[in-house]
Write a structure and sequence with these properties.
single chain; about 300 residues; alpha/beta; Metallo-beta-lactamase, Chain A; 2 domains; 8-stranded mixed beta sheet; 7-stranded mixed beta sheet; about 25% strand
């Protein structure tokens, strides 16, 4: 399961009710921030997410409405927060701009008190843990070397709590060992094997996060079959020419992509304040009914079995 916490959902400039682009993706103890627009650290505090373990920052591209909040947040990390290290992931084009911001404005020749790692990434596998991996893919947006991210949960066998209870397996380390594939011996001498308490293998959740995109039809192979896709919807179809000029998408564009790529559910973000929320949703849902519009501080749990809470 992945948990999404939207910190900023506005396009280009903040509005009264929407901050600039930022999203947190959680999986167990891991936290990944996707983009860090101006004012993100205040949104973190208001959301209750907090700064703990928020040390992986994935950047879609280097435009200021997606990176400018890094200056304030890193400044706070360096003065007050016990962050052991910060890892910033992005294309070379993106990291060049972020380096100017951090080294030229925040540090100004000083050394950060914690390791500050600028990790240049290219399309392909960029992160892997025991339970999930992250892949990057190219996104077309005004020559910015943009990247999208696919979070892929590995298949797993669910722990059958009721079966374990009936067998007398106590809570705590014994159950953890069984989940990790190790047999245990109970106090009465009975040996319990992992297959005794684990169900049939299930595929994991597949989540796609895209920032700004000018030609969403090019993403079809990269987002195909995703359980949930998060993507921009800056314009409505009535302003399609403006969207094309500025390298953005309409709600209709990304809804069509979701339908053609076999996406399970669609979450829209990066929306312009020139439109009413109801109009954005109506345009997308006319093409792809399983569409949701994210607001600041909205939280979604992304699960298998066609469920999103």
């Amino acid at each position: 399961m992945f948990e999404l916490i939207f910190l900023g959902t506005s396009a280009s400039a903040p509005s009264i009710k929407r901050g600039l682009s930022s999203l947190v993706v959680k999986h167990d103890e891991f936290r990944f921030m996707v983009d860090c627009g101006e004012g993100t650290q205040r949104q973190i505090l208001k959301s209750g997410v907090g700064f703990k373990r928020l040390n992986h920052i994935l950047l879609t591209h280097g435009h200021l409405d997606h990176v400018l909040g890094l200056a304030g947040m890193l400044s706070t990390f360096m003065r007050w927060e016990a962050i052991e290290e910060v890892n910033i992931y992005g294309s070379r084009h993106t990291l060049d701009r972020v380096s100017d911001l951090i080294n030229g404005v925040v540090l100004r020749g000083n050394k950060a008190p914690m390791p500050l790692n600028m990790l240049e990434i290219k399309p392909g596998l960029i992160f892997q843990s025991k339970y999930f991996e992250i892949q990057a893919f190219p996104v077309d947006h005004r020559g910015s070397s943009s990247l999208g991210y696919r979070f892929i949960e590995k298949s797993h066998r669910p722990f059958l709590s009721e079966v374990a209870e009936a067998l007398g397996v106590p809570n705590g380390p014994c159950r953890r060992d069984l989940v990790q594939g190790n047999a245990i011996t109970l106090e009465d001498g009975r040996v319990i094997l992992p297959e005794d308490v684990l169900g049939e293998e299930r595929p994991g959740v597949n989540l796609v996060v895209v920032g700004d995109v000018g030609k969403p039809e090019k993403l079809r192979e990269h987002v195909a079959g995703a359980d949930v896709m998060v993507i921009e919807a800056t314009y409505l179809a009535e302003d399609a020419e403006m969207a094309l000029t500025y390298g953005h998408s309409t709600a209709a564009d990304v809804a069509s992509l979701a339908a053609e790529a076999g996406v399970g559910k669609l979450i829209l973000t990066h929306v312009s304040r020139r439109y009413r929320d109801d109009d954005i949703l109506a345009e997308a849902r006319a093409i792809f009914p399983e569409t949701y519009l994210a607001n600041d501080f909205d939280q979604f749990e992304v699960r298998k079995l066609d469920r999103m809470e």
